[in-house]
Each structure stands twice: as C-alpha cells, then as structure tokens.
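Dear Dr. K.,

Following up on our conversation at the group meeting, I've run the structure prediction for ATP-binding cassette subfamily C protein CydC from Lipingzhangella halophila. I'm pasting the input sequence below exactly as I used it, so you can double-check it against your construct before we proceed with anything downstream. Let me know if the numbering doesn't match what you have in your notebook.
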Amino acid sequence: MTRVPETAPPAEPAPARRVRDPLARMVALARPRGTRFALGVLLGAAATGSGVALMGVAAWLLAKAAEHPPITALSVAVVATRALGISRGVARYLERLVTHDAAFRTLADVRVRVYDRLARTEPVRRFRSGDLVSRLVSDTDATQDLLVRGLTPPLVAGLTGGAVVAFCTALFLPGGLLLGAALLLAGLAVPLAAAALGRRPGQRQARARGELSTALVDTLYGAPDLVAYGAMDRAVRRVEQADDELTRVARRDSTLMGFGAGASTLVTGLTVWGALLLGVAAVEGGTLHAISFAVLVLTTLAAFEIVAPLPAVAARLGAIRASGERLFGVLDTPPAVAPPLHGQAAPEPGDAGLRMRSLRVRYAPEEPWALDGVDIDVPEGRTVAVLGPSGAGKSTLAAVLLRFRDPDSGTVDLGGTDITAHPVDEARRFITGVPQDPHIFTSTLRENLRLAAPSADDDDLWTALRRARLAGEVEEMPDGLDTEVGSHGARLSGGMRQRLALARALLAAPRILVLDEPTAHLDPDTRDEVTADLLAAAEGYSTLLITHDLAGLDRVDQIYVLSEGRVLQQGTHDELRARDGWYREALRGTGRVP
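The predicted structure tokens came back this morning:
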C-alpha cells in the first residue's frame, strides 16, 4: 500500500510562493506584526518630521528675531522649538522600541520555523555543518536587518518627504520642485544604483561567510586527525583564504556604502546651492519674503535627513537577498517525513510485534531502490537480526523505523497499526533504539540518561545502567552519575558510549528496540563483548539488530540477509549456517564454518 504524503501545513510557504523574490518573502514573514510595523512607520515619520520642522521653525525664529519684533511675537516659535526637540527624541525612541520589538519577535518566529523544519525533515545532513550554522545564525539574522533597516526607512521617507515637498512647494514653487527632484534622486536613483552595484558582492559575501564558517568548524572538529596526518597547515590556510575572501567582499561593501553616502552628500550640497540661488533671485524680485527664504533653505538642508539611510540600506540588499535565498533553502527543503493525514487519531498498537510488507524506499526518482520489496517480521518479545554488506539498505531500514524517512510504498505495521499513521514523536515513543553513532552530549552521565526520561529518579537511572551492563564502571567513577563525559563523550570508551546510549533507550520504555550497527566502530574483542551485553539487555523487548557483524548472531531468533535492498535469505543461525548462500560464505570467511 502506497501512502500519499500530506501537503505541507498552511503555515509553511506553498510551492507556488517559492518563486517569489526572497526579499518579498522575508517581508511577508512580518505580516502577523504588520500593525506594529505600521505604528513604527508613523512614529518614524513623526520623529523625522519633527527634525525637519525643528530646523524650519528655528530658521523662522532666527530670521524673525533679526527684525527685533516684540517678544510675544516669538513666544509661539520658542515653545514650538522646545516641543519639536522633545517630540523628536521621544518619537525616535518609541519608533525604535516598536520596530525592534516587532523585528525581534518576527526573528524569533523565523528561528522556530527553521528549527522546526530541521526537526521534522531531517535535512541537517544535506548541508555542510559549518554552512548550516551560518544559515541558522547570519542568514536568519538578515531578516531582522531587512525589517529594521530596509522596511521602515523607505516608508518613513515616502511619508515625510511628500509632506516636506508639499510644504516647500506651497512656500515657493520652484524651490519645492527642486527639492522634490533632488529627494527622488537621492532617495530613489542613488539607492537603486547602490542596490544594482551591491547585488553580486552581496551574493559573494553570503557564500564567503558560509565558506569561512565551514572551514572553521571542519578545522576545529577535525583537529586531532589533521594533526595526526600533518594536514593542519593546509586546513589553517583554507580558513585564512576564506577569511581573506570575506574581508575583500566586506571592503567592496564598504566602498558601496561610501559611494552612496558621497552621492547623497553631493546631491544635498547641489540642492542647497540651487535653493539659495533661486531664493536670492526671488527675494530680489520681490516674490519671496526674506523670512520665507531662510525657512526654505534650512528646510531644504534638513529634508535630506529623510533619505540619508536609504543608500546604505540599498547597498546591503544584495547580501540580504542572498541570505534570504539561503534561509529559504532550508525552509523549502521538502519533508522527508510527512505528518499523518488529518482525521481520527491512530489507535494504540495492540502488541509489540513489528511487521514490514513490500517496503520500498529510494532517495530520488532517478536513483535505484535502497529497499525494494522488503518483508520482515519481528514477533513480540523476539530478537531479529538484519544482516548484509555495506549498501544493502540496512541504514535505510533503520531510518524508516525511527521515522527519519517515509517509505515510498509498503507498510510498517506495529501491533496492527501503521506507524506512519502516528505523529513522528508518538511513533518514536513506540520505536526507539541505539543509532550507529549515538550522540553523547557534553554534560554528565545523569543528564545524558535523563534526556530520554526527564522525570526519572536515580533508582531508575541505575536500573537502566545495570541492564546495559554499565553500572559497574559508573560506580567506580569518583563522581558517579555526576561524571562529566567530555565533548561528544570523549572521556568514555567506544563500548561505554554504546552502553550509555542503550541505557538511555531503555529508559524510554519502547515497544520495539532498534540497534543500528551498534558495534561498527569497536575493535573485535570489544565488539563481541558489547554485542553480548546489548542482546542481554534487550532481552524481553521486541528487538531488531541491524548489523554487518556476525558476532552474537547465534543468540538471535531469526536472521534476514539483505543485499541490494532485497531479502536474500532468512532463517535461524543454524539453518543459514547449514545452507549454501551468502550467510554460510560470510561465516566461512571468518573461520566459523569449516
């Protein structure tokens, strides 16, 4: 039976929307807080408008005072100057408070969505680790950069600039038209030029940041092997080259910002000179009062505060767009595990028997089947081994059982219920185990164990350790359960890490225990010992042992031999040992069959 995956939840971007520009998609992320951003734009307009108005009122006050009028004639302007000075600061503070609060909340939502997508789709291995860190940190933070610097300032400039141009046009038509043209040049043409020039450097900057992060992570985590093979110098040079490239791109970015600032300053100066020349001619011709002339010139000078932030923002748009593409590269990763279809909740499994029928999985339409019609039974309370060479499909089988992949067709039935009918976390409550390379967290033994059962007390932890044959070693440690295991469990031996992972799995009290290549990285002597301990600890569970190692298979109830995604042989150890085929040949290669 083929299970049709459910479409993505409404909260995720629909496929049709993925062709949209990344900048538009990043802005759309702020839609739930559109009211806050609208308020921020109004407050920003009030702050900028207060600044321009303050300069205009001050110009009127100074020019009027030169005529030595009665003090009462200046009182309104004096009060207005104080009020505008105060309102400018208050409005700017409130604007930053509102917009940054909305941006940070949106950024938090984006991070949750990214982490949720990683948790649900398991695309971590599709990206290099250092590059993924860059996507999660720098590229995600670009959302905040766009919302705070790229969304509010242009809208504020549109509102305030229009009002100022209207005021200056009413005051003196030629001066208002000149100011309007200059603001369009400084606030539109210059930023568009900066954005066009900054697009390719911005893309290179995002890539360079990812390369540097990848090189650093690879060098730090691979340091022991790099030193052992004399490759540390090459790794350090790779980091230096990545840093040099990022530095070169950053310099180009600074040059673009300097171009924008210089062009804006040039336009500002030329416009003020133009306003002066037009104003002087108008005053001499009697069409403009001297006080109005002073207001016009200083208002024109102050008006460029409105568009001053825009060129720098535009120069950054290329980098922000590239970051958006990388961010949505994670968010748009197709799910490897689809949520269950909406409807009635799946019933609890009736027993702990596992039944796989016609199971087929492949990683891409053009690739061969990793599993091709696999039928396997794990009866309740029995131990079954799946054996085969590298590339046989064993790891794919473990990924399906642990809900890291959906089958393309076929069923995985647990106690009468298809596991794909359950939510992922619920399915993992029924089926859990020890992966091939279990992750040991940099913490204490106690915290590593309680990861599976946060409410477990010390008695529960010791019981699990005894079942995993690890209690003796822990008792000999000076700090017992509070022993620090080091980075990735570096203070524990390979066998101890496997036993610790098994104890953690036992604490989860699953119905099915999956042991995926539990002795893959152990030496032969330790391998036999750990296999015996794992099988002893799993006694009473429905257990599936996935392995390429022949040690301990005489203790399992049934063996399935996989080859090229198909079941090649099945039977007990004695049956397969006596029968010609892959298993007998493998045993002969180890000297266990004459």
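Two things stood out to me. The first helix runs from residue 22 to 28. The first strand starts at residue 354 and ends at 361.

Best regards,
J.T.
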